[in-house]
Known about the structure:
Number of helices: 8
Strand order of the largest sheet: 7-8-9-10-11-12-13
Structural class: alpha/beta
CATH class: Alpha Beta
Radius of gyration: 18 Å
CATH topology: Metallo-beta-lactamase, Chain A
Bound molecules: zinc ion
Low-confidence stretches: none
Number of domains: 1
Order of helices and strands: EEEHEHHEHHEEEEEHEHEHE
Helix content: 10-25%
Largest sheet: 7 strands, mixed
CATH architecture: 4-Layer Sandwich
Mean pLDDT: 96
Shape: globular
Distance between the termini: 8 Å
Number of strands: 13
Amino acid sequence: MKVLGSGSIVPTRQRFCSSIYLRGASQELLLDIGPGTIQKMVRYGLDPHSISGVLISHYHVDHVAELLPLIKMWAYDRDGRPARSQRGLVIIGPKGLRELVRSLIDGSRYFGYLDSTMNYKKYTSLVEVSGDEAIELGDVRVKAVGVRHYDGVAYRLTFPGRSLAYSGDTVVDEGMIKLAEGVDVLIHECSFPSGSSVGLHTDDEGLSLVVERVRPKLLVVTHLYPAWEGREVSLASKILERHRCRVVIASDGLTIRF
Length: 258
Ligand SMILES: [Zn+2]
Ligand SMILES: [Zn+2]
């Protein structure tokens, strides 16, 4: 796992908008695709053309704004020649994905060329998840559940021999906890320190409740607003005082093996 973006829309030296890169035996996946994702991949030695799928948690700008650049990039090869790859681009997200992409591109005076010139529909598959059924991406099984954050979803991914859950943005959510129970790796948001929470997010007290129920082997804490800068060690120790799991406070560029 490589953390591409572990912060919020407000940049700091260590963190910016959400994206996490996962590499399994046969799949390379992105969890969310916030602004800056593609260039960070290249800077961290990853190849954006190798992505097998993008899983979007919800349609806030800090999680989805690099989607159009990815769709446009897919129409070019690695040397910048207009030579579309034979491989399709698979985008997965909660209900509204088709409406979002179509409304941005189809018939748009400015972005319509992604359709009329580049024929993005020929290579882009949009898959909406409802939470009832599982999706197979090669050898990875994907399950989603709705969370209380602007029609967002959380995901559980089962790789051969390993499982991972990603909260996206959410308050402490019962559905998410049930989906994630017993996973090897829990990637959970912790936007603000307790007492200063804004919006539908989780603070450190809430995160502790989630960890107690999910009992992951490894907790990766992400989606940190600037209020957490310089307080990462105390956040980690607070969780470690109460739970027996490995804890990593995410920052952009961090590699985590599991
Ligand atoms: Zn959000
Ligand atoms: Zn967010």
